[in-house]
Automatic annotation (TrEMBL):
The keyword Transferase applies. SUPFAM superfamilies: Class II aaRS and biotin synthetases. Pfam families: LplA-B_cat. This is lipoyl(octanoyl) transferase.
Length: 206
């Protein structure tokens, strides 16, 4: 995938571990696959690298708007989008989440709590965790959600490898592990082959 740094690019990286991870993730994301048709590499992508900490609902609403625009016939040729950011503390419950296994009272959560449309179970987001939200029209890449999940995992694995960290997959599960602990959670949603949600990579959070 060719990342086209057009005028919509916001570049304000911070000199920290988070900065380095953002740069490396973008590099591997931009070369995510060699398995698809040649037009894959020419598809532009608007890249937003956001500093500060963002409320979950604000970013979710933005994703929904970006996805809806690309689902419309008039928006089919809009560029893909990649959002990189950190959230304010929040728990999200995916479609597979079972409240019986949550370790706090969902009526009185320790921070904001949302049940959302992505796959997966409960995930915590907060400062020190990098979030990557690709809004992709998979009709221009590959119409296969399993393929897409595996490619996102591979992007994380290749990014961590640049730091000498040998991350890996676990058979039958989605995400990326390091030293027997899950370092990246991955959950997506798609409608008419346009994706939202994405990757949560633990960098400096406790």
């Amino acid at each position: 995938m060719y990342i086209n740094f057009i005028s919509r690019l916001r570049s304000n990286w911070r000199p920290s571990k988070s900065h380095l991870s953002r740069v490396d993730f973008l590099h591997f994301y931009s070369t995510m696959s060699s398995e698809t048709k040649p037009t894959f590499y020419k598809r532009p992508c608007w890249f937003y690298n956001l500093s500060g900490y963002y409320s979950y609902q604000t970013i979710r609403n933005w994703q929904l708007q970006l996805r809806q625009e690309r689902m419309e016939p008039s928006g089919e040729n809009l560029p893909d989008v990649l959002l990189m950011l950190e959230h304010q503390p929040v728990y999200t419950l995916g479609t597979a989440a079972n409240e019986e296994f949550i370790k706090f009272d969902v009526k009185h959560p320790p921070c904001e709590l949302y049940r959302i449309e992505r796959g997966g179970e409960i995930t915590f987001h907060g400062p020190g965790q990098l979030i990557f939200y690709p809004i992709l029209n998979l009709r221009f890449h590959k119409k296969d959600l399993r393929w897409y999940l595996r490619r996102l995992e591979q992007v994380v694995i290749e990014t961590l490898k640049t730091y000498g960290l040998e991350a890996y997959r676990v058979e039958g599960l989605t995400g990326v592990w390091l030293d027997e602990k899950k370092i990246a959670a991955i959950g997506i949603a798609a409608s008419k082959w346009v994706t939202m949600h994405g990757v949560a990579l633990n960098v400096t959070n406790e």
